[in-house]
Design a protein that fits this description.
By secondary structure, the protein is mainly alpha-helical. The protein is built from 30 helices and six strands. Among the domains are: about 100 residues, no CATH class; about 140 residues, TolB, N-terminal domain (Rossmann fold, 3-Layer(aba) Sandwich), CATH 3.40.50.
Length: about 650
């Protein structure tokens, strides 16, 4: 043994080994930093780790045989000892490589759990497993969804506190470069549902899930968080925090930093500053925001809830949130939706509409000024300007907002911009949003609407097909599908789609009119079918806009101009006329001379006019110059019912 050690020293085997380990470690760290910045796949690092392990053994062998003499032979004992060292070292290095590849080796002051804790999974067929493995291979390792933390408090109202904390953690993680974070709309869809980790991971397209619980008693809160590998339910990290309610706001940053460490994402001071800026500073503010958001969702989606009344209730809570935290950008942005819907609503007094316009401009200006996210700021300010009476440079502002990197979902701006040829930019943004918020149904609808408005029917059908696959439940006929089929000349299929639907709402009404006009249906027969539509079933009280579309599609230009002039005279009339353009699919639905305010705004905006005609309506020519048995006349009669 003494002679063997001497030979090790003679050949400088230890020095060679240490030098190689130092070099390999530095190389791996450097590659990891570069990979995080450029989004390289994990396979690159895994291959490099395996190559480094092999290189270690090669280095030892070269050092042994090419030492001082280079010709001496090892004895049998020496060979046995070398084999033992290589076996033990190889096992340790292989273990290290495997652990590194799975991102389980970050040393923190918190608990790292090595053992697997699988959650309940369901059986799958061999074909299903193959598909799952293929899908899993496309999911980036540095991706995460923050599931809503469970409220364990006796007071059920504390669910708003736990939801708020979950969203704050999500917002902090979203500020980290190199980490894909799924948006709230998608991740919160699993709230209160018994769905296993692999299924959630596949549906959201993430490799990791962050979940936890909150138990609040008075001014104390116990927060437990755990990071789960989605593919098999393995717990990668967990920590429990006992804090006061006020101090619990700091927990979000600690959790985000710990998660970043476990996933081997490098944080710098700039990213930490962005994370701090994204947080809400007042506990009561984010509780109020969560209450408002629940009312906001109910107003849009819950049957029997009037949209405007529901949004008014939501704004009471949003106002509380911004009073407590004047820099609460998300609350301002959500608050503006009430005023925008009011501007589009029928039967409002001019004073009420002017108040709504002023309120929309104010809240969107505050949303932009306080936003920590450049993309969200640009989207808010573009939306603000389209509601204003000053459109100077609006085209450039819209283009800048749509091209801004990121995946924040816009609200009304794409509906407006679709009228002026921004379909491709809207689709590019919408596709990015669906990557980080794959279960956001509103975004799918926005993409379809923009595709139809700009003459891309097959794109619209492909987007709906993707949505149906994502949400499951099989094909569902929609008015948008009927319009897309009409644009493709598949009139019979379009009519069959509408025949399988419930005849209600403004969307169905316009689709029935478009299909009928494109097919050259007899006006009397078409009017009879339109009279069956329940106009009161729509959440949106904007039939003045629909009637302008009806007049344009019926070929009654004078009637279309009369409707357009009335909309032009209303506050934010430019938005209403843009919606007429997108829904008509008929090019310019009215004469610009009938809308002098809109004409002046267009002249200063740089926006494109006229829009293209995306559907050919053979019946429209027959209606020109004669008093048609028009859908417009039928619509007017029903307005006064």
């Amino acid at each position: 043994m003494t002679g063997f050690i001497a030979r090790l020293k003679q050949r400088k085997l230890v020095q060679w080994a240490l030098a190689y380990v130092a070099f390999a470690f530095a190389l791996l760290q450097g590659v990891d930093i570069v990979a995080a910045k450029f989004g390289w796949p994990d396979s690159v690092e895994r291959i490099l780790i395996i190559a480094s392990c092999i290189g270690f053994f090669v280095t030892l062998l070269l050092a042994w045989y090419h030492g001082d003499q280079g010709r001496q032979r090892a004895s049998g004992t020496e060979l046995l000892l070398i084999a033992l060292v290589l076996a033990v070292g190889g096992g340790l290095l292989w273990k290290f490589a495997g652990v590194s590849a799975n991102r389980d080796v970050t040393e923190t002051s918190t608990t790292l759990v090595a053992q697997a804790m699988p959650r309940t999974t369901s059986a799958a067929s061999t074909a299903g497993n193959a598909q799952a493995q293929s899908a899993a291979a496309a999911i980036p390792a540095k991706s995460i969804a923050v599931l809503p933390f469970e409220n364990l408090s006796d007071n059920k109202d504390n669910v708003y506190f736990s939801d708020g904390l979950s969203e704050e953690i999500l917002n902090s993680l979203a500020r980290i470069d190199g980490l894909r974070v799924i948006g709230r709309t998608s991740s919160f869809q699993f709230k209160g549902k018994d769905v296993d980790s692999p299924t959630i991971g596949r549906r959201l397209g993430v490799a990791n899930l962050l979940e936890g619980s909150v138990r609040r008693e008075g001014e104390r809160a116990r927060i437990t968080a755990q990071l789960i590998r989605a593919s098999d339910g393995t717990q990668l990290w967990s920590q429990t925090y006992d804090r006061t309610v006020t101090d619990s706001l700091a927990v979000q940053l600690d959790i985000a930093e710990q998660v970043a460490g476990v996933l081997n994402v490098v944080l710098d001071d700039k990213q930490r500053a962005r994370m701090r800026a994204a947080g809400v500073k007042n506990v009561d503010a984010f509780i109020a925001y969560q209450k408002g958001w629940k009312l906001y969702i109910d107003a849009h989606a819950k049957p029997g809830v009037n949209l405007i009344d529901g949004l008014r209730q939501a704004n009471v809570e949003f106002d509380k949130a911004t009073a407590l935290d004047p820099d609460f950008s998300f609350a301002y942005y959500a608050e503006a939706d009430l005023y925008e819907h009011t501007l589009m609503s029928d039967g409002r007094s001019r004073a009420e509409l002017l108040d709504a316009q002023r309120a929309a401009l104010h809240t969107l200006e505050r949303a932009g000024a306080t936003s920590p996210d450049p993309q969200q700021r640009d989207l808010a300010l573009a939306e603000r300007q389209m509601l204003s009476d000053d459109w100077h440079g609006l085209a450039d502002r819209i283009e800048t907002a749509l091209k801004q990197p990121g995946c924040s979902a816009p609200n009304w701006m794409p509906v407006f911009a679709s009228a002026f040829g921004y379909g491709d930019l809207i689709e590019n943004l919408g596709a990015r949003v669906n990557v980080c918020d794959p279960l956001n149904g509103i975004n799918y609808h926005t993409r379809v609407s923009a595709a139809l408005a700009t003459g891309h029917p097959q794109r619209a059908l492909d987007i709906w097909a993707k949505a149906e696959t994502t949400f499951g439940g099989g094909p569902t006929p929609t008015s948008s599908q009927a319009i897309a089929l009409t644009m493709l000349g598949r009139i019979a299929e379009a009519q069959a789609t509408l025949d399988s639907m419930e005849p209600s709402g403004d969307g169905y009404y316009i689709a029935q009119l478009i299909v009928g006009e494109a097919a050259g249906t007899d006006p009397a027969k078409l009017n009879a079918s339109l009279q069956k539509v329940d106009r009161n079933s729509s959440k949106f009280e904007s039939w003045d806009v629909t009637d302008a579309v009806v007049a344009a599609l019926s070929g009654d230009r004078a009637e279309a101009d009369r409707h357009a002039a009335a909309l032009d005279a209303r506050p934010a009339g430019g938005l209403l006329l843009a919606i007429v353009v997108t829904e008509c699919q008929c090019g310019a639905p009215f004469d610009l001379d009938a809308t002098p305010r809109f004409k002046a705004l267009l002249a200063e905006s740089g926006l494109r006019w006229p829009p293209p005609e995306t559907i050919k309506y053979p019946a429209r020519a027959a209606h020109h110059g004669s008093p048609p048995v028009s859908a417009a006349a039928a619509a007017k009669a029903r307005v006064h019912d």
